[in-house]
Amino acid sequence: DQLPVAAPKQGRTALINTILMIASFAMLMTLYAPVISSLVRQWLDDPNYRHGILIPLVSALLLWKRRDELREASRDGGTTAGLLLMIAAAGLLVTGTAAAEFFAMRISLPLMLLGATLFLMGRSYTRIAGPPLLLLLLMVPLPYIIYFKITFPMQILSARLSAGTLAALRVSVIRKGNILLLPGYTLEVVAACSGLRSLMTMFTLAVVFAFFTDMSKTRKVILVLLSVPAAIAANTVRLVVTAMGALFIGPGFADGPLHEASGIIVFMAGFLMLLLCAGILRWTQYRRKNRSRS
After folding, report:
1. Considering only CA atoms, which of 65, 226, 204 is closest in space to residue 136?
2. CB neighbours (10 Å) of residue 223?
3. Do residues 129 and 117 lie in contact, with contact meaning Cβ atoms separated by under 8 Å?
4. Rounded mean pLDDT, 139-151
5. Cα–Cα–Cα angle for 6, 82, 25, nearest 5°?
6. What does 109-159 look like in DSSP terms, one character per residue?
7. I need a surface site. Which of 131, 155, 224, 243 has the fewest CB within 10 A?
8. DSSP assignment of 203-241, as one string?
């Protein structure tokens, strides 16, 4: 006899939680407006992080795709873990603002969204909404101190791989650190040619692609990991093409529009390589399923 009463009560609770979620989201966007503004400016000004502007759109698209699951998920908010995560995110925001540490301020945004979702909507809801929210971590640029610490080893690695490839192609080359000495031309592997930009973009694309595929979790992880050698290989090819162009066409090849065009073409080749890996992984999964059925 009490079932008809419980259903409307549960519906009212879900409606209240939804209203609280929307109100909390609006307040968070107001609170984080300066952080979001500086983040967007860096996306537009820094070519290393142009891909970051797509991450919120992809996250929103993933949430939209999961809207039916979110609608049916139970909403049992009030978890302590969500509250603690919100407190930690608020601490990062306050500390980052006081110390002018942009990374701490920016990284607190996806953590705050995740904590608010967990606190207001509960664990079942967060299991579905959590992965798209965690994807927002990829929109945050690395701290410059970390970026530059990674850049130089990447420059050396790129120079070493390029020198080895050129030597295999019977091209006379001497490597000194990140400098390649060619007959009549000196090619310096500067920070912009280290491959870190391609690596971050390729890694992000691999994660996004993994979200939209129906592969197993193991294969998705393998695909994301394969983005690292794919990006390094693509950058090595770019440097080798630049060196060969400067050697056989002229020094202007390494600095002109042909160099920029070759960079885009080689990056697309790396991305196609990643898609090929995804196709192979999906084929192996499909083949394994067919074998198990038979």
Report:
1. 204
2. 23
3. yes
4. 89
5. 85
6. HHHHHHHHHHHHH-HHHHHHHHHHHHGGGGGSPPPHHHHHHHHHHHHHHHH
7. 131
8. HHHHHHHHHHS---HHHHHHHHHHHHHHHHHHHHHHHHH
Is the Cβ–Cβ distance between 89 and 115 less than 8 Å? yes
d(CA 113, CA 55): 15
Please give the order of strands across the beta sheet that includes 179-182. Answer: 174-176, 179-182, 185-188
Q: Which amino acid is at 110?
A: P
Helix (H) or strand (E) holding 180: strand 179-182
pLDDT, tens only, 187-245: 888 887 788 888 888 899 899 888 888 888 899 999 999 999 988 888 888 889 888 88
Q: Is the pLDDT reported for residue 262 higher than 70?
A: no
The Cβ of residue 174 has, within 10 Å, a number of other Cβ atoms equal to: 11
User: For residue 62, how many other CB atoms are within 10 A of its CB?
Assistant: 18
Model's pTM, two decimal places? Answer: 0.80
Residue 273 CA to residue 289 CA, distance in Å, equals 25
pLDDT tens, position by position, 12-62: 666 776 777 778 778 888 889 999 999 999 999 988 888 899 999 999 999
Q: How far apart are the first and last CA of the chain?
A: 50
Cα 72 → chain centroid:
29
